[in-house]
Amino acid sequence: MQHEFTITTSGAGLYEFTSEVTRWLCTQGDGLLTLMIRHTSASLLIQENADPDVCRDLQAYFSRLVPPASDPAMQYLRHTAEGPDDMPAHIKAAMMPVSLNIPVKDGRMRLGTWQGIYVFEHRSAPHRRHVAACLMPLG
Amino acid sequence: MQHEFTITTSGAGLYEFTSEVTRWLCTQGDGLLTLMIRHTSASLLIQENADPDVCRDLQAYFSRLVPPASDPAMQYLRHTAEGPDDMPAHIKAAMMPVSLNIPVKDGRMRLGTWQGIYVFEHRSAPHRRHVAACLMPLG
Amino acid sequence: MQHEFTITTSGAGLYEFTSEVTRWLCTQGDGLLTLMIRHTSASLLIQENADPDVCRDLQAYFSRLVPPASDPAMQYLRHTAEGPDDMPAHIKAAMMPVSLNIPVKDGRMRLGTWQGIYVFEHRSAPHRRHVAACLMPLG
């Protein structure tokens, strides 16, 4: 009842993996699903998966709210050894979830109609992101 | 041990439902309570419930941090079909919790003295918000 | 399988307590660990614990994103009775996690290589922060 998902990213942005989670759950039963991303420069989000502009706008907003370390407004940052996207990635990882919990009933996540599960990659370079999963059986 | 709370909102702001949760739990026993909001344009918060100015100030701050799409600074947003408050609501829903976990002991949530549970409505129009609840029994 | 950690803080900043959690878990076994901070003016974070500049930069960023109530840009805040750092602390507590979940396998948290667990103190004065812990056994 523990598992690990691997999501391959190709730069900053949102990567949906709802269907991978759905597939794994259908062999597991009911309970409480917990997901935790094992990194400090990417986040887990539940967000709208109907209009792709939502993901695009989320990325656009947060890249403005937390500009790269090369931006004049961000000159106070010190953790810049890995590049201008390094520390902003940690900041975004502090502002957005590292863990998510989703009740599961009759083998299905109790998500709303438009809710999808995403890795939000904050780094510019491609990464392999590992998400620890755990299903606590109920009843 | 699964349940759904429905919270009726009348525009952007915080709506406390701690007492509804307390009432439901007292018939359930001990364990781990999980709440998950089934929407991507509202959040769940644990916040101070002593001074109502805290909720007012939270609303005032986040409406400035994420202005409506009609604001000149937000012209880059594309997901605006449902109105100027649509995409800012998704952004706030990414920044604030979609799920909460509260340990329960002797039938009571282990909240701090001033902690209350809220739906933070990010849309301008009234909505009915659904919160999935799940109590995992302990011991 | 319930516990409470007490973390003593000496002003705004990040305070790691990963080793305290590790020590407690090794006597408990496997399952799902939940941590919840019992306050509304401090947060729980999972963040990088390799380079201390990450914690310093997080503190520097959020103190700029949410300036004290004495800042001209923040004159609209009303909840200021306890001082200029009071309401900004609540705002930061809304933006960063109040609860965390970490799957535990073979008695060890499934954290990534560089992940540590922190209390992020948002108030200027020293505080004693209480973190409720709960381990749900698995299998």
Structure in words:
The structure is a homotrimer of 139-residue chains. Chain A contains three helices and eight strands. With 139 residues, chain A is of the alpha+beta class. The first copy, chain A, has a single domain (2-137), classed as YjbQ-like (Jelly Rolls, Sandwich). Chain A has a five-stranded antiparallel sheet with strand order 1-8-3-5-6, covered by helices on one side. In chain A, a hairpin with a 2-residue loop joins β5 and β6. Chain A is elongated, with a radius of gyration of 16 Å. Chain A starts with a strand and ends with a strand. Chains in contact: A-B, A-C, B-C. At the A-B interface, β4, α2 and β5 of A face β3, α3 and β8 of B. Chains A, B, C: InterPro entries: UPF0047_YjbQ-like (IPR001602), YjbQ-like_sf (IPR035917). Chains A, B, C: This is Secondary thiamine-phosphate synthase enzyme. Chains A, B, C: Belongs to the UPF0047 family.
- Per the principal axes of the C-alpha atoms, what is the gross shape of chain A? elongated
Assigned CATH class of chain A = Mainly Beta
Alpha carbon gap, first and last residue of chain A: 15 Å
- How much is the radius of gyration of chain A in Å? 16 Å
The helix/strand class of chain A is alpha+beta
Low-confidence stretches of chain A: none
Which homologous superfamily in CATH is the superfamily of chain A? YjbQ-like
H-E string of chain A: EEHEEHHEEEE
**Count of strand segments of chain A:** 8
The most extensive interface, with participating residues per chain, is: A-B, 33 and 30 residues
Averaged pLDDT of chain A: 96
Largest β sheet strand count, sense and barrel closure of chain A: 5 strands, antiparallel
Strand order of the largest sheet of chain A: 1-8-3-5-6
Q: In the CATH classification, which architecture of chain A applies?
A: Sandwich
Helicity level of chain A: 10-25%
Number of H/I helices of chain A: 3
Organism (chains A, B, C): Sulfitobacter brevis
Pfam families (chains A, B, C): YjbQ
Family (chains A, B, C): Belongs to the UPF0047 family.
Protein name (chains A, B, C): Secondary thiamine-phosphate synthase enzyme
